[in-house]
């Protein structure tokens, strides 16, 4: 079965919007944490998205993989950088990370294929 990673990432955003309405205080705090965590500082945002992608792979979180593959692409990560990130995640997480690593590469490719540039 082919997964629609663009739809999965959109679903993550839709779920977050519903949570912002249901628990605005907590989600405002979470958004603030994210803004601080992904800001370009000593590490560029692109590298931070690759780290988040690796954690999503190791954590076996399909929505995390789709969302952070999208964000890594949007921040300018190359397919080769994503592939190396997947390699580190596999080394840290073993066989299950290999399965989700394949998912991550397919997700990145879906966003790259959709880009008109």
TrEMBL record:
Which keywords has UniProt assigned to this entry?
Lyase
DNA repair: is it a keyword of this entry? no
**A single Gene Ontology molecular function, please?**
peroxiredoxin activity
Broad EC category: lyase
Coiled-coil regions, chain positions:
none
Check the record and name the InterPro entries matching this protein: AhpD-like, AhpD_core, CMD-like
Q: What is its EC number?
A: 4.1.1.44
UniProt name for this protein: Possible carboxymuconolactone decarboxylase family protein
Residues annotated as domain Carboxymuconolactone decarboxylase-like: 27-101
């Amino acid at each position: 079965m082919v997964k629609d990673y663009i739809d999965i990432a959109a679903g993550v955003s839709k779920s977050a919007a519903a949570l912002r309405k249901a628990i605005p205080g907590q989600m405002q705090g979470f958004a603030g944490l994210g803004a601080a965590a992904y800001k370009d500082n000593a590490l560029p945002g692109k590298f931070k998205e690759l780290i988040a992608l690796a954690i999503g792979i190791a954590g076996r979180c399909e929505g995390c993989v789709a969302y952070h593959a999208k964000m890594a692409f949007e921040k300018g990560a190359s397919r080769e950088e994503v592939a190396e990130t997947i390699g580190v995640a596999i080394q840290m997480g073993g066989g299950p990370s290999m399965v989700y690593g394949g998912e991550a590469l397919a997700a990145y490719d879906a966003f790259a294929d959709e880009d008109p540039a």
